[in-house]
Structures are given as C-alpha cells and as structure tokens.
Amino acid sequence: MSDCLLELTNVHLAFPSRRNWLGKVTEYVHALNGLDLTVRRGETLGIVGESGCGKSTLAKLLMGMLTPGTGQLDRSRLPADRPGGGMQMVFQDPLSSLDPRLPVWRIITEPVWIASRSSEKVRRALAEKLAQQVGVRPEYLDRPPHAFSGGQRQRIAIARALSAQPDIMVLDEPTSALDISVQAQILNLLVTLQRQQNLTYILISHNVSVVRHMSDRVAVMYLGQVVEMGETQSVLEAPAHPYTRLLMESVPRLDTPLGEAPQNTELPGNRHLPAGCYFRERCPWAESGCAVPQPLRRLTDNHATRCWKAEKIIAMGGK
Ligand SMILES: Nc1ncnc2c1ncn2[C@@H]1O[C@H](COP(=O)(O)OP(=O)(O)OP(=O)(O)O)[C@@H](O)[C@H]1O
Fold first, then answer.
1. DSSP code string of 26-91
2. Residue 170: which H helix or E strand, with range?
3. Which residues line ligand 1 (CB under 6 A)?
4. Which residues of 135-148 are buried (b: 16+ CB within 10 A; e: fewer)?
5. What pLDDT shows up at residue 111?
C-alpha cells in the first residue's frame, strides 16, 4: 500500500506474570496476540477497546519502549535520523509527562536539544515559535509547568512533540484528563496542526464521540487483537463484529466513555487465551465454526473483521 506509513503484522507480546522459586517464568500475560495494523500517511487512526485490551502496550510498542515477542513492526518509511524516529507521543496527564523543574521553554525544546549544539538563543527562538503554533503566550515560557492550567499544559506537551518534527503522533487519551470545556479546544488544535503539518495521528481513546469526531479510520481491539478495522463511519455505524456491536450498544449516549466493560463483554483472562475466536464464549452468534482462530477478513476495500459470520450478522441487522 503506497500511503502506508507504519505496519504491524501478527505481533505477539507477553509479559511474565509469575515465576517459580528458581526464577523461571511459569505464567505470562498475553497482552498482544497477533495484532495486525496499518497506519496511512496523513490520517487519524482511532484505537478503541475496553480497559486491558492492550492499547497502552500497543502505544509503548510503537514508541520503541517495548519490542514485539514475535511478528513485525515495519517503521522503514519513517525517518530514523529524527528524534523519536519520526514518532512522538502525547500522554493523558500532561503534568506527569512534563519535567516540573524546568521552565517551559526548555521542556518544549527538550526532544531536539539533547543532540544539538546550537546556542541558547536559537533554542529560545524555537520554543517561542512552537508556543505560538499551539496557542501558548511566549511571555509565559519562563514559568514551570505547574503554573499553567490543564489545557495549557496539554498545549505545551503538544509543542514538545512537534519540536521533533514527527510524521506520526501517538495521542494516548489526550483530552480525558481535561475539563469538558477545554477538550474541544485541544481537539480543534490537533485538527488544525494536522492540516498545517500533514501529521498522522494514532488516537487511543475510551471516548467514542472523540474517536468519531477525529478519526478517518477506527481499529477495535479485543484481547490484544484488532477484531474490526475500517472507515469510521462503517465501523461505528454498521459494526460487523459482534464485539463491536455489543460495545456500541453499551454506549447509551455517544458522548459516554467506554469506561466499564459492557454487559456480556467482560474480557476473559489474558493469562490463558481461549481457543478459536477469542470472543466466542461471550458471543450471542457463536457456533461450532467459531472454534478455529479467525483471521482478519476483508468485507469491503475499507472494512475488515475477524468474524466469519460478519456478512450474515450485517444482513440480519445484528438481530
Ligand atoms: N508491565 C506489565 N507487566 C505485566 N502485565 C502487564 C504489564 N503492562 C500491561 N500488562 C497487562 O497487559 C494487558 C494489557 O494492558 P494495557 O495496559 O496495554 O491495556 P489497556 O487497553 O491500555 O488498558 P487501559 O485502558 O486500562 O489503560 C493487561 O492485562 C495488563 O494487566
């Protein structure tokens, strides 16, 4: 795919969770279990799924903080010589991600300055330019991060990410720690920056309305796999996987976060993975054909799902 910027193929990643008295690992938490994902240049790809499905593990893997156990993470189309290898991350809680001892102008330019030999004056000028781009007043840049409001701090975190000139920004719940009134401002800023700088976003969020508003495509995760992926409209309005359907039905209003596991969709333990389709034991449409592992199947050019009954389910209107 020519516009594909990043690709994950059949990625597995497990954390040791128990050891015997000799220190040998006797049990693993299987966080990612055959994850397939493509990210296209210039898009916003939303990642949704309930707590524990592997979203943060995926983000850490993308940022190089974890390596796949097996499978492939192809970053070859990203610039390896830039700080962060062309990828930067914006975290949920801006305060804990910003060094409290530094003035903001130093924080903003941190990613590029470690390896740079330019003068402090040049560094300051860059900080002021980035601050202007994200709507932080340059005259406040000598202050530490705790002197700013939550929304301003998130702007600072975005400026810091931009300083490294990333191709991709991983946005991990970028507005969920903010007041409702500020959330829209930050989302609008992200949209503007994306248009201006041709950025690609991977947006991790519990909030369906944020994902719907921001994303071109959506990937739905369940037990460390992508179970449905496609254009936002198709996936959220006409979900083809039984899990996505239950997830959407459990959201009474579209601005409600997917906080609690919806009824009948509680994640089974990821220490002992189910055989066949991982959703089988909770699926209202399950039958004997679901006892074998389900590959991602293409429904249309822009919609794929891990369910062999998807066409039937769509035809039945999910009933
Ligand atoms: N360092 C670790 N050691 C052991 N288990 C881990 C570790 N990190 C994550 N896990 C486990 O891996 C699974 C996936 O966790 P992850 O944090 O990626 O989920 P998540 O979808 O981001 O959840 P949340 O929305 O609550 O942040 C969970 O069962 C979690 O307990």
1. EEEEEEEEEEEEEEETT-EEEEE--TTSSHHHHHHHHTTSS--SEEEEE-TTS-TTSGGGGEEEE-
2. strand 168-172
3. 15, 17, 29, 31, 49, 51-57, 270
4. ebeeeebeeebeeb
5. 84
CA 192 / ligand 1 centre spacing (Å): 32
Inside any domain, residue 159: no
Q: Alpha helices of 250-309 — where are they, by DSSP H? A: none
Q: d(Cα 16, Cα 19) in Å, to the nearest integer? A: 8
User: What pLDDT, on a 0 to 100 scale, did the predictor assign at position 260?
Assistant: 47
Helix or strand or coil: residue 121? helix
31-85 tens-digit pLDDT = 999 999 999 999 999 999 988 899 999 999 999 999 999 999 999 999 988 888 9
User: Does some domain include residue 207?
Assistant: no
> How far does the centroid of ligand 1 lie from the alpha carbon of residue 73, in Å?
19
Residue 48 lies in a domain: yes
Give the range of the structural domain holding residue 10, as residue numbers without chain letter.
4-78+219-315
pLDDT of 61:
95
Specify if 163 maps to a domain.
no
CATH number for the domain harbouring residue 255: 3.40.50.300
Q: What domain count does the chain have?
A: 1
Q: What pLDDT shows up at residue 252? A: 54
Please state, as a whole number, how many other Cβ atoms lie within 10 Å of the Cβ of residue 120.
Answer: 11
From the CA of 33, how far away is ligand 1's center (Å)? 13
